[in-house]
Amino acid sequence: MTQGRSTGKVVVVTGGGSGIGAATAYRFGSEGATVVITGRTQEKLDKVVADAPGGSTLVARVADTSDEQAVTALVQEVVDEYGRLDTLVNNAAVAEPGTVDDLDGDAWRRVMATDVDGVFYASKAALPHLRATGGSIVNVGSVSGLGGDWGMAAYNAAKGAVTNLTNAMALDHASEGVRVNAVHPSLTATDMSEGIRSDDDTMAAFRRRIPMGRPAEPAEVADVIAFLASHDARFVNGAHVPVDGGLGASNGQPNMG
């Protein structure tokens, strides 16, 4: 772990109440950043703050990133309080299982509102402040947005949109000194994936498909996010980094070993 790499930086992590978001907050906090975590539930955010490693500076702020006014106000509040913004991690996401003929319009819109609109709103609010600091955005996509997956039509479509929105922002804002990159986890041990991970047959199938034979840990994704946001990645822009245990290298084929 690179102690002090983010000292003096201010980081906003959306969806910071659990899983990858919480792990990302802890990683940046351990590197010396002031980290503002957002989410819809105060109690979950407060628990993440309470459980933070000693010496970390984590702050909880309730905000629904699918609400443009709320997320714009949040970003301005952070800058007013701390004087700067260096990194935005767009992690907030929801998933609704179902194929196109299974999903109703409300379920589709819930996924799009958080997983796509939320990235747009938060990024739009953050960009003026990131220009001032030469900061960066890291979007949390998914391998399901790179190649698709069965029975998750809305989530696949939303994460596919995040993939290409990352590309668009990386092109549009590099000349302004703002880098935009994305990580794409495969199955990760989070609350969102608990239903999948509790099914023995489904997990056996995942282990056959993922060459490393297990889900990712949230901290393993957070490590890559912190790298992409750091000066160590200062010439990395528009990158899509799979954190997938080799799934992409296997072209999704079962592990026959």
From TrEMBL:
Residues 9-199 form the Ketoreductase domain. PROSITE patterns: ADH_SHORT. It holds the Pfam family adh_short_C2. It comes from the Bacteria. Transmembrane segments: none annotated. CDD domains: SDR_c. InterPro entries: KR_dom (IPR057326), NAD(P)-bd_dom_sf (IPR036291), Sc_DH/Rdtase_CS (IPR020904), SDR_fam (IPR002347). Belongs to the short-chain dehydrogenases/reductases (SDR) family. NCBIfam families: PRK07231.1 (NF005559). This is SDR family oxidoreductase.
